[in-house]
From TrEMBL:
Protein keywords: Heme, Iron, Membrane, Metal-binding, Transmembrane, Transmembrane helix
Presence of the UniProt keyword Flavoprotein in the record: no
Transmembrane parts of this sequence: 12-31
SUPFAM superfamilies with a match to the protein in the record: Cytochrome b5-like heme/steroid binding domain
Entry protein name: Cytochrome b5 heme-binding domain-containing protein
A GO molecular function held by the record: metal ion binding
């Protein structure tokens, strides 16, 4: 009974080295790609703003996208291109997205994430100053 190990066949050694180098190349390529800039979150203002449906309706494009969720107004412009559902996010741009937002397609984390885009409250009419 011999306890000495038999040497690995050359092909196994070469395959291990080749796999290692392929992995290194993949990692190097991933690290060298410029990262997509982080989504710009709408700035939080100390003063709470109010908007009418008419105000929100003016912001109905990919480049300027506001939505209403449960009487709150959100500027989601910076998130549109990152939305996993592609252009579905634009279906209610400039309008009320409450019904479409609350569905099985959105995991729970989305309900917390949306708060970062809150810009104010929806009102029926603006008060005169």
């Amino acid at each position: 009974m011999s306890t000495a190990r038999e040497p690995l066949p050359d092909v196994v050694v070469y395959a291990a080295f080749a796999s290692f180098f392929v992995l290194l190349i993949i990692v190097a390529v991933k690290l060298s790609k410029p990262k997509k800039p982080a989504a710009r979150v709408a700035p939080k203002s100390a003063e709470k703003k109010t908007f009418t449906r008419e105000d929100v309706a003016k912001h109905n494009t990919r480049e300027d996208c506001w939505i209403i969720l449960k009487d709150k107004v959100y500027d989601i412009t910076s998130y549109v291109d990152d939305h996993p559902g592609a252009d579905a996010i634009l279906n209610n741009a400039g309008g009320d997205s409450t019904e479409g937002f609350h569905g099985p397609q959105h995991p729970e984390r989305v309900f917390h994430m949306i708060d970062d885009y809150l810009i104010g409250d929806l009102v029926e009419t603006k008060k005169d100053s």
